[in-house]
Amino acid sequence: MIAEEVQDELGAIEAIYPECFNKLNENLLDLKVPQHEDYTIRISFPDSYPASEPPHILQVRSSNKNDDETYLEALFNEVLDSVFKNGEVCVFDFLTELEGILYVEEDDISQQVQIETEPVVVDHLEGWTLSEPVTDRGSTFIAFAREVHSEDELFQKVQILKADRKIKRSSHNMLAYRIANPNGTRASDCDDDGETAAGSRMLHLLTLMGVENCVVVVSRWFGGTHIGPDRFKHINSTAREAVLKAGFGDASLTAHGKKEKKK
C-alpha cells in the first residue's frame, strides 16, 4: 500500500504534468521528463519509501536511437540518490533536477555536437561469474567469483564490484580469497562484513575445494526476517556454485567440503 504522502505527491505531479504521467498500477508508473518527453522512466515504489529507501528506477527509455539507455539509467539513478532524503518524498524534486541536467540552450546545440563524446559506462560485473540467486523468507543471496593474482588486483576488482548500485544496497558483502604467490607462499583472508563467521566459512570452503587465485563475494539483501543457521547454507551453496561456474575447484565436493556420494 503506497503511503499517503506518496499518493499526494503523485497526485500533484499528475495535475501539473498530465501528459507526462502514466500510472500502470498502484505501485508502478511511467513518467516522461517534463520539457524532455523523449525520455520515459519506469518507477516502482518500495514499501520503505519514503521512510528509508528511494523509488526504484526499473527502466529508462529514449525515443532517440543514438542515446545510450544504460548510461541514462545510471545517470538518472545518481540524480535520484542525490535528491532523496530519508522520510521525504522526492519524485517532484527528481523531475525538476532532471529538467536542469537535460536542458540545452539552442545556441549551445551546435557546440554540444562538436564536443560531445561517448559516455564512459562502467560494467561493475565485468569479469565476475554469478551464482543463481537464492531467496529464503525475504532474504536474497548471490555469489560473485573471479580470477585474481594479487591482493592489489583483488581489492581493486572488489571495489568496482561494490560500486554497482544494486550491490551497494545489499546488507552484507562477505568475502574470501586464496592467492598463490610466485615465491611459493599463499595469501588468503576473509571478511564477514557483519555476518559473523560467514567469511571464515567461505575461506574454509575454498581451502577444501583446493581453490587458488580466486576471490568470491556473497551479497545478502536482508528481507527483515531472521533465518538462523540457514543463512550459512545459502552463503556456502551460492559461493560454491559461483566458484565452480568460474572454473575453479573440485566439483565433487558438496557445500560442506565433503565428497559427494556416488549413487
Description:
This protein has 263 residues and is α+β, with helices and mostly antiparallel strands. Helices cover 34% and strands 24% of the residues. It folds into two domains: 4-115, Ubiquitin Conjugating Enzyme, CATH 3.10.110; 129-245, Impact, N-terminal domain (Ribosomal Protein S5, domain 2, 2-Layer Sandwich). Strands 5, 6, 7, 8, 9 and 10 form a six-stranded antiparallel beta sheet that branches. A four-stranded antiparallel beta sheet has the order 1-2-3-4.
Write the layout of secondary structure elements.
Layout: H1 4-16, E1 21-25, E2 28-33, E3 36-44, E4 56-62, H2 69-83, H3 91-102, H4 109-115, E5 129-130, E6 134-136, E7 139-147, H5 151-162, H6 165-168, E8 172-180, E9 186-191, H7 198-208, E10 214-221, H8 230-245
Antiparallel strand pairs: 1-2, 2-3, 3-4, 5-7, 6-7, 7-10, 8-9, 8-10
Helix pairs in contact: 2-3, 7-8
Gyration radius, rounded: 23 Å
CATH-level-2 architecture of the largest domain: 2-Layer Sandwich
What is the H/E string?
A: HEEEEHHHEEEHHEEHEH
Helix content: 25-40%
Largest sheet: 6 strands, antiparallel
Count of strand segments: 10
What's the CATH H-level homologous superfamily of the largest domain? Impact, N-terminal domain
Low-confidence stretches: 105-115
